[in-house]
Design brief:
Shape: globular
Distance between the termini: 13 Å
Bound molecules: 3-methylbut-3-enyl trihydrogen diphosphate, magnesium ion
Strand content: 15-25%
Order of helices and strands: EHHEHEHEHHEEH
Structural class: alpha/beta
Strand order of the largest sheet: 3-4-2-1-5-6
Length: 226
């Protein structure tokens, strides 16, 4: 059975979920955000140590201002509401992405929850916000260049936003598209990929459990003959 340490999730399909119900896209995002902790709780039950959700990409700034604003508002509300979840469930809160582009208020809320939960040990929950894999790699290489003449794999990994996370074992994308959308390109080098048509707001703990069960049975080779 495969060991499963790190799951990454591309939460796609909020807009289509809302559209199908004649609701606003913002309503779709709200519903999408409301299921995140159900999935996190299930991950804890499954003894998974790291879960990383794609919340906002570097490309998502190109959406209409109204949608960007509603996503940022939602993120702020989420942080206000979920702060206690992390404490109660012994979950460490972490963020990847270039948060210097977010409002100071949001940055403060992020660092406050990160600080308060830094000793929590059940699971590390990471949100990718203003995250783009290419942006992350460029930032890492620029930092590494200042201190190292010759760069190797370990040095790059140490400068990535994910320096304190293991590589991804399983990547799940909801919403029907089979693409990566600039998510964790370096970290998914040997990940198993799971694509489901389920729109994110409809994603359930039972589907999540099924995907995990299937993952555990897959033979992973990492390039060798086993
Ligand atoms: C994913 O849902 C959430 C974010 C990108 C913030 P979408 O908003 O992309 O939903 P669809 O893909 O349009 O249905
Ligand atoms: C990926 O979804 C980003 C997030 C889930 C935050 P998108 O909806 O932005 O991806 P594309 O545009 O369909 O590739
Ligand atoms: Mg989408």
């Amino acid at each position: 059975m495969n060991k499963l340490s790190h799951i990454a999730i591309i939460m796609d399909g909020n807009g289509r979920w809302a559209q199908a119900k004649g609701k606003t896209r913002a309503t779709g995002h709200k519903k999408g955000a409301s299921i995140v902790q159900d999935i996190t709780k299930q991950a804890i039950k499954e003894n998974i140590k790291y879960i990383t959700y794609y919340a906002f990409s570097t490309e998502n700034w190109n959406r209409p201002k109204k949608e960007v604003d509603s996503l940022m508002n939602l993120f702020e509300k989420y942080l206000d509401k979920e702060g206690s979840f992390y404490i109660k469930n012994n979950v460490r809160f972490n963020v990847i992405g270039d948060i210097s582009k977010l409002s100071i208020k949001l940055q403060d809320k992020i660092s406050s929850i990160m600080q308060k939960t830094k000793a929590n040990t059940n699971l590390v929950q990471t949100l990718a916000v203003n995250y783009g894999s290419k942006d992350e790699i460029i930032r890492a290489v620029n930092k590494a260049n200042k201190e190292h003449k010759i760069i190797n794999e370990e040095i790059i990994a140490n400068y990535l936003d994910t320096h304190n996370l293991p590589d991804v074992d399983l990547l799940i994308r909801t919403g029907g598209y089979k693409r990566i959308s600039n998510y964790l390109l370096w970290q998914i080098a040997y990940a198993e990929l799971s694509f489901t048509k389920t729109l994110w707001p409809d994603f359930s703990t039972s589907e999540f459990k099924k995907i995990i069960k299937k993952f555990k049975k897959i033979k992973r080779n990492f390039g060798t003959l086993k």
